[in-house]
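Quick sanity check, Lens fiber membrane intrinsic protein:
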Amino acid sequence: MYSFMGGGLFCAGVGNILLIVSTATDYWMQYRHSNNYMHQGLWRYCMPGKCFTHTDSIAYWDATRAFMILSLLACFFGIIIGIMAFIHYSSFDRFDKSFAAGILFFISCFFVFLAMAVYTGVTINYYGKRYGNWRFSWSYIIGWVSVVLTFFSGIFYMCAYRMHECPRSSNPH
């Protein structure tokens, strides 16, 4: 049980760090415009030597930002509850912390998956038709890596919950 929770905490910790980096950085997409390479993130777009804040409130950026922030919060609270489950902190007796942490990690995975899906769909439809020389960049890629890590965090914590709830009987019948 502790090895599953340890693996879940490791995946969740790395996933949360990657979520923070992915959300905060400006390399979700790179493209060539007027013979200059430019890149953009969720908050800013950058030309050679200078970055500017997105001034337009475009729905897919707002949705992606909101889902990424919700994912960060769910993962953070999952880590806190996961640590409490690991050290047997018992302020709530009828509250299974390993189950709650697993659910929060799955919720985090779902939110980051939604964010990545929205961004991917709109970007491919918009930039794919207008610009020939563009690509997703490393901030976007680590967003997808965090989907996988938060998913495995949820799996690990659900396995720990199952081991805790269904201990194996030492004398078979």
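Posting the structure with no commentary besides this: The mean pLDDT is 86.
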